[in-house]
Design a protein that fits this description.
By secondary structure, the protein is mainly alpha-helical. The chain is built from two helices and no strands. It is elongated.
Length: 53
C-alpha cells in the first residue's frame, strides 16, 4: 500500500486550514477566527481517530 493518498490528504488539510484561517482573519474578528480554526481542527482530529480504529 502506498502512502501517497495519506500525504495528499495531509497537504490538502494544511492548505484548507491556512485558507480557512486567512478568510476568517479577513472577515471575522480574531477571537471568532481562532474559535473557528479550533473547531475545524477538533473535527479533523475526531474524524482521523475514527479511521485509525
Amino acid at each position: 500500500m502506498t502512502l501517497v493518498p495519506k500525504y495528499v490528504f495531509e497537504v490538502a488539510l494544511v492548505i484548507g486550514a491556512v485558507l480557512l484561517a486567512g478568510s476568517q482573519l479577513i472577515f471575522e474578528r480574531r477571537f471568532g477566527a481562532v474559535a473557528t480554526i479550533a473547531i475545524f481542527l477538533a473535527a479533523v482530529q475526531a474524524d482521523c481517530s475514527e479511521h485509525v480504529k
